[in-house]
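Exercise 7b. Backbone tokens:
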């Protein structure tokens, strides 16, 4: 009787382990697919241009793919900590490295996209106009930010940008605008060059995280 019970228990354990293997395999495929989708979607967002509908769609798809990948990674981590596997720590490290890869890739895409956008504005902003400053606020470490209003072609326009100091309302400064598109934001500073720091961090971090992810996946395949 004990032997029969043991055999029934063993068969039940094998079925349970088979289901766990199926879930782990499916989660692995989902995470790898999510990484591919995140990278491609972020690439689309960068090439589509700043704040364009296609760029927004790219960011949305990347965020959705990342969320799906995270949801898939959690049960894979839990199931990997079972007594038959005993590799929950390795799978958890893989999940963390994958999340870092997505985060650094997003940083790279955002900073690169912003630089291209701001540099294009700088190149086209050839007309100098006088703007009236208002609603200046000090945002602490983020610096000062003001609203700039100007008139071009009998039409009034406004945009927000950084400022050297918290100017009083009514203060007047010279800004540059795109004569072909006077409704585009006025160019006050060229601080967008600092975005190259984010590009460098994103690129280096993405490379390191990708190597960590590849190494973790290779270790699990052994």
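Sequence design result:
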């Amino acid at each position: 009787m004990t032997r029969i019970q043991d055999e029934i228990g063993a068969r039940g354990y094998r079925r349970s382990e088979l289901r766990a293997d199926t879930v782990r395999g499916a989660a692995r495929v989902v995470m790898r697919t999510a990484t591919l989708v995140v990278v491609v979607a972020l690439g689309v967002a960068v090439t589509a241009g700043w704040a364009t509908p296609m760029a927004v769609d790219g960011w949305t798809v990347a965020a959705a793919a990342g969320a799906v990948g995270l949801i898939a990674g959690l049960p894979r981590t839990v199931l990997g900590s079972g007594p038959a596997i005993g590799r929950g720590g390795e799978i958890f490290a893989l999940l963390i490295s994958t999340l870092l890869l997505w985060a650094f890739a997003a940083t790279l895409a955002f900073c690169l996209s912003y630089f291209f956008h701001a540099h294009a504005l700088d190149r086209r902003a050839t007309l100098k106009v006088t703007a009236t400053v208002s609603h200046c606020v000090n945002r602490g470490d983020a610096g000062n930010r003001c609203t700039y209003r100007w008139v071009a072609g009998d039409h009034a326009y406004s945009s927000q940008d950084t400022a050297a100091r918290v100017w009083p309302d009514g203060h007047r400064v010279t800004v540059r605008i795109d004569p072909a598109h006077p409704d585009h934001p006025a160019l006050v500073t060229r601080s967008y060059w600092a975005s190259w720091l984010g590009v460098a961090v994103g690129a280096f971090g993405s490379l390191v995280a990708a190597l960590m992810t590849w190494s973790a996946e290779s270790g699990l395949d052994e």
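Instructor comment: The two ends are 39 Å apart (CA to CA). Confidence is low (pLDDT under 50) at residues 4-13, 81-86.
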